[in-house]
Specification:
180 residues; mainly alpha; 8 helices; elongated
Length: 180
């Protein structure tokens, strides 16, 4: 029994078979056809997201602001009359959401580096065991899975930057708390 070929190998085989059926079996002709073809247009939502790069920053700031407000309400900031305690509680209210945002950003950085790929691949393998056809694979093996995952990089800087600003504000308030 032959081992099942990976997804990339299957696509290459299908491409070469299609080329043979179309009469373009010569590699030079195939390369010319591919170079003369128009590049695929990006979907409209991709183009829009590049024009609105700032939207991630605004949404993250709004979410962290709401978290800060909820923490401040929970700590009773609006009923505190002592200035020192007010600065201490505001420091906490800004610091906690900032640390969460920076932490999530750094987790995405680790994920982009492939730190969790083995766990995701293992989990998918376990789920696949319970399917009707357990030999039906989306990926040829772990190496091919890693190669495809490297292409899927998620942005994380907006979390680190906005979270860092909130941590910085919390730090300034903490310094003011210690000086008063």
């Amino acid at each position: 029994m032959k081992p099942k070929k990976g997804l990339l190998e299957e696509k290459q085989i299908i491409t070469s078979i299609d080329a043979d059926l179309d009469g373009a079996s010569d590699e030079k002709e195939l390369a010319e056809e591919q170079s003369n073809s128009k590049p695929d247009k990006l979907p409209p939502n991709v183009v829009k997201s590049k024009n609105r790069w700032w939207l991630k920053y605004v949404i993250t700031t709004a979410v962290l602001g709401v978290m800060t407000l909820l923490i401040a309400l929970g700590l009773g900031v609006f009923s505190i009359t002592n200035q020192k305690f007010l600065l201490g509680e505001l420091s906490t209210a800004f610091f906690v959401p900032g640390i969460f945002a920076v932490g999530f950003g750094l987790l995405i950085l680790c994920s982009n580096g492939g730190a969790f790929d083995i766990f995701a691949y293992g989990f998918m393998s376990i789920i696949r065991m319970f399917k009707k056809d357990p030999l039906d694979r989306k990926y040829g093996g772990y190496g091919e899975y890693r190669k495809l995952q490297r292409e899927k990089k998620r942005s994380f800087w907006y979390l680190v930057i906005v979270g860092g600003v909130f941590v910085l504000i919390g730090g300034v308030l903490l310094i003011a708390f210690n000086l008063v």
